[in-house]
Amino acid sequence: MKSYLKTISIDTKKPMEFIDITDAVKSAFGESEIREGLLNVYSNHTTASVTIAEKCEKLQKDMEEFLENAVPSGTYLHDEDTIDGRPNGRMHLMALYMNASETVPVSSGEMMLGQWQSIFFAELDGPREGRKVFVKVIGS
Amino acid sequence: MKSYLKTISIDTKKPMEFIDITDAVKSAFGESEIREGLLNVYSNHTTASVTIAEKCEKLQKDMEEFLENAVPSGTYLHDEDTIDGRPNGRMHLMALYMNASETVPVSSGEMMLGQWQSIFFAELDGPREGRKVFVKVIGS
Amino acid sequence: MKSYLKTISIDTKKPMEFIDITDAVKSAFGESEIREGLLNVYSNHTTASVTIAEKCEKLQKDMEEFLENAVPSGTYLHDEDTIDGRPNGRMHLMALYMNASETVPVSSGEMMLGQWQSIFFAELDGPREGRKVFVKVIGS
Predict the structure, then answer these.
(1) Burial class (CB in 10 A: 0-12, 13-18, 19+), C110
(2) CA separation for the pair A10, A128 (Å, rounded)
(3) B92–A63: do the CB atoms touch at under 8 Å?
(4) What value does the CA radius of gyration of chain C take, rounded to a whole number of Å?
(5) Tens digits of per-residue pLDDT, B82-104?
């Protein structure tokens, strides 16, 4: 069995931001030289997720507005735990809509992404420097 | 390491539809002849997801009604991007509740599904012909 | 390829309860003696999920309150299917916010959990005895 790990480092610029990382993931996949297996894209954070969606500026704005409406602004208990002056209970709850990771099948040397599928790093509590995403590919 | 890929093709009949694909996934798993590993069920689409839930007609209706209420009907920015006359911003947002894939452990020649767990293809923007789900099994 | 399966059994005490299982998962991981691969944490149930979040008593209370508000109390069609006197349509809908499993990369003999990431078993329809979580590690 072969395996390959690549760490993608991301500086986010806005409080909420869907960042397309498909090219970086594909590049890591190419370096892995794995042709059959599974590829896991993993966010190392609790207020930033990985999600697969269509890439389209207007849709990413819809997604941001949807999450802002779905998790009302206001005061959350966790806001009292803030250590850096940024109460972020609300951002942790937005993360419930997505996952820490997505796993994509690899076959015949291709990541099996659909025509409209891009892989996003979803920053929910930015801006932050040095966010980390791991791309782990295992297989043969 | 062994690996196996099976493509399941699905024609959906309704705008929203939870389709039980457990039997097709189990069939692919049997063909894989893998006894220890991981099985990934992956939707190749951005307005159709894979989710694990209890199979029960009334529950699937509850799930449809819940998603319809959770993502209000109305106009979304992405609706302006429509290329086939079907504005579907709302359906993309429903997909935030689920994932592109689910990964199930395989042990002693069995998929470790629980007694009440079935695997569903969740069509959110149907009806559509030729939806694709990949079943990728890797292991030994 | 090596693989390892560990079953974690959990008795839950409350109707809704986020139980930190990170230590049990890490223990299973250590027993696997796998240094490169993927680790899948899988809930064997349809009203209990696996999710990764920051561990913090106040945040877990926020998460419980959020789910209770997001899925209104009331009557659901699935409530008519109850077999043990506990109508639980609402709890199945809460499960839409999370997944049956999370998959974590393993590299250089470490689970790649972030500094603030803990793994939770999310009981949505407790209390229940003998809930099962599978930890499956595959790799080399």
Answers:
(1) exposed
(2) 8
(3) yes
(4) 16
(5) 878 889 999 999 999 999 999 99
How close A42 comes to chain C (CA, Å)? 7
> Domain map of chain B by residue range?
2-139
Q: In whole angstroms, give the CA distance from residue C8 to residue C130.
A: 9
Which residue, chain included where needed, has tokens 């409080």? A15
The listed CATH number (1.20.1510.10, 2.60.120.460, 2.60.120.1440, 1.10.760.10) that belongs to domain B2-139: 2.60.120.460
pLDDT tens digit sequence for B51-94 = 999 999 999 999 999 999 999 999 999 999 887 888 999 999 99
Given a contact as 3+ CB pairs under 8 Å, which chains touch C?
A, B
The secondary structure of C86-126, three-state, reads: CCCHHHHHHHHHCECEEEEEEECCEECCCCCCEEEEEECCC
Residue C79: alpha-carbon gap to chain centroid = 23
Q: pTM here?
A: 0.97
Q: H helices of chain A, where?
A: 22-32, 57-70, 89-94
Tokens (6 digits) for C3: 């693989």
In Å, how far is C60's CA from the nearest CA of chain B? Answer: 19
Using a CB–CB cutoff of 8 Å, tell me whether A114 touches chain B: yes
- ipTM metric: 0.96
Question: For tokens 């049990």, what's the residue?
Answer: C24
Q: Per the CB < 8 Å rule, is B3 touching A140? A: yes
B52 interfacial to chain C (CB closer than 8 Å): yes
> Which residue in C67, C56, C138, C60 sits closest to C103, CA to CA?
C138
- Asked if residue A123 lies in contact with residue A133, where contact means CB atoms within 8 angstroms, the answer is no
What stretches of A3-140 show up as alpha helix (H) in DSSP?
A: 22-32, 57-70, 89-94
Sign of CA dihedral B29, A102, B128, B66: positive
